[in-house]
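Lecture notes, structural biology module. Today: joint structure prediction for complexes of two components.
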Amino acid sequence: MLQTLINAWGSLPELVRDIVWILIITVIIIISVALLTLWERKVIGWMQLRRGPNRVRIFGLLPGVGQPFADVFKLLMKEVIIPAKSNKVLFHLAPMITLIPAFAAWAVMPLSPDLVLSKADAGLLYVLSLTSMGVYGVIIAGWASNSKYAFLGAMRSAAQMVAYEIAMGFALVGVLMATGSMNLGKIVDSQAGGIGAWNWFWLFPLFAVYFISGVAETNRAPFDVAEGESEIVAGFHVEYSGIAFALFFLAEYANMILISALAAVFFLGGWQGPFQGYPGLGDTFLGAPSFGWLLLKVFCLIFLFLWFRATFPRYRYDQIMRLGWKALIPVTLVWIALEMVMASYHVGPWGRPWYH
Amino acid sequence: MLVQTLFFIFSTILVLAAVAVITARNPVYSALALVMCFVTSAAIWLLIEAEFLAVVLVLVYVGAVMVLFLFVVMMLDINLAELRQGFTRFAWLGWITALAVIVEIAGVIWARGGMGIDVARGAVPHPADYSNTLELGRILYTQYAYPLELAAMLLLVAIVAAITLTMRHRPGLKKQDVDAQVAVKSADRLRIVKMEAEKRP
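The predicted structure, tokenised, for the full assembly:
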């Protein structure tokens, strides 16, 4: 039975199989986003000595797990209020523009040793350009709403995005130098050999810069001045209600998962096992590369996002700009220069056979 | 065949978006149409297998330059009626520029045809493991290393010039000194006063 299914799958044309995989990945991301909103509220609740959502159950089991689904149904039922003097077309377009890059970037993500939708050679650049396009939804939403708060949020977001994109790009230049490829699959391949061979050790400052810029690019706390509940109400999506608001939320959480997955691929070896090549452990499943390792790494990185939100107060706008331009970018520049020295003396990843 | 169909679809969108850039009444629409132009030209570059250029076009122009453009256009409160008054006065200049560009493009195509290069032919397909980025990097950093360095220096000079031109120290400008803000202690701001308890009269 199983064999016939596998044979039938193999006989399908490649286009059909790709489309099925795209659908599977999209649905999994959407469900993960739903569960992530619950997990966030739970974690922040525990950190603040509360219980978090614990009322809505699924089939009378698992208190709280039904909460995100109940939220989605509530938002679907609600009216999408369109401000009278807003720009109608752009107002409707903005949530979709935010959402598309968050999903499209998964096309080049190496999910497991054999599963990747596109082995694009310029995958790293593709991902970088897509994450930078997410800001259009925010800007357009802020402008089309025809509201002062929304507009202020959009302007802040635009400036912040341009500043942190540069730091992010420089951090990825460092990854490029250490792995010698822009293909995400090859970047993971080059980090084979256990936890010490992953990029995080030799590129630790770049890892930190990349993740901090990632938090800033997703407009998450402590860099969420684009929303800034305490000063500009809810920033760019103050005029949005119902499912249009939910789409912004979906995009924000999908971007969180994406940035975590990218950080795992670039710096934590993607689907590589941490004990690979270690005597004893390396022969068991602990050393084998698998999708589970990527999942575990993404889970840990996402926890950092939630931890930041529960811990840090919001940055002031000028402090965000200062951090981006005067702290993160110089750090990446210095480390890239150091990498040149390391490369010429064949230290760390530059001592591997493929480099010569 | 598929590539050709896609090319015509993308170029139609590109031309329409380019027309929209100059005809849109709202400057924000113009800027968004320009974004559309960049994205579709990136798609056309992908069709001729120039993937590095295509992605970098999106990354630099759509991701950074146009965001700043939109930022400025949205901030400006432009009076459109006033702006359109002198519009037709300079139409002749626009026509001359357009004509010059058309003549240049036609000249290039004609010269190429004269030298025996078939301009109608598509790009030469490369094997699957061919890396566009690698080849470009190899040429830029070996054969054209000095021109590249010169261009980089030119950009650096331009950056320094732009900053020195715009950074004016106006009198009465209030600035935040973050170091002083961080270094501040509670004793600098708060004074605890000891005083006798008030007595009821």
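Point to remember: The first helix of chain A runs from residue 2 to 11.
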